[in-house]
Amino acid sequence: MSKIALVTGASSGIGRAISITLAKEGYNLIITGRRVALVTELAKLLESNYKVRVLPLCFDVRDQLQVEHYLGNLPESWKEVDVLINNAGLAVGLNTIDQGIVDDWERMIDTNIKGLLYVSRVISNIMINRGGGHIINIGSIAGKSVYPNGNVYCATKHAVDALSRAMMMDLFTHNIKVSQLCPGAVETEFSQVRFKGDNERAANVYKGFKPLSAEDVAEVIMFIINAPAHVNIADIVVMPAAQASATMIDKK
Ligand code: NDP
Ligand code: 8X3
Hints:
Blueprint: E1 4-7, H1 13-24, E2 28-33, H2 36-50, E3 54-58, H3 64-71, E4 81-86, H4 102-130, E5 133-138, H5 151-171, E6 176-183, H6 190-194, H7 199-205, H8 214-225, E7 235-238
The protein binds NADPH dihydro-nicotinamide-adenine-dinucleotide phosphate and 2-hydroxyethylsulfonic acid.
């Protein structure tokens, strides 16, 4: 029987690419995001191109009641979730702490930490009841080191790093693998969101070197998922060849 994967933040970037790659591999997919048009359009594309079943769900991961409503009441035929990709996340703003915008901080903390927790709580219970599963958290190079003005975003990804290790300890005896994938620079809508629609500033982030594509990241995810049952790839950092740390990018 085909496996079921749940991908949060499937409406763009890494989550969209992971969803397409999983569909190519024959997974039935629960895809989520807030932008109804994009999630619906992706669902149609996956169904028609890859002949898999798709359940599009549109909610905000920051809203615990919505998360529990949608994921806690999955239709019977969608309850056997094999793989959860905790991908929904964002950076908002790039300021020193003293100039920080509290609303930006709360959006990042509520999405990247609390949203991941709300989703993981519901789905880990489903996985425990069904006897196993695999949770993959999308961390970041920003969860391994910090960089100037990245303060709160980096802190949220350090939290994902800590939670990934803690979740592995809490869940491994339930036959649930927990893995973390930490990308460096990936060209997606990430910088457009960070710079609040200043697309010129966003485009500059990726000028002068070849960043990762969302598809590059999706391939690494498949490597993690396809490891033999007795192997858990606990943590991977993947960066463009032109990047050596969060702050070191060889721009020509
Ligand atoms: P995108 O902005 O392209 O995608 C982000 C996704 O997250 C969208 O689908 C968005 O959907 C979803 N999302 C954001 N906020 C919420 C919310 N409150 N509720 C539900 N869904 C939400 O960026 P990326 O693909 O680059 O980012 C994906 C993940 O990868 C993030 O966790 C990011 O931190 C991480 N990452 C990105 C890197 C990069 O360089 N791009 C590098 C390292 C990590 P919608 O707006 O429809 O809700
Ligand atoms: C996204 C990569 O370096 O902009 O997590 O924080 S970085």
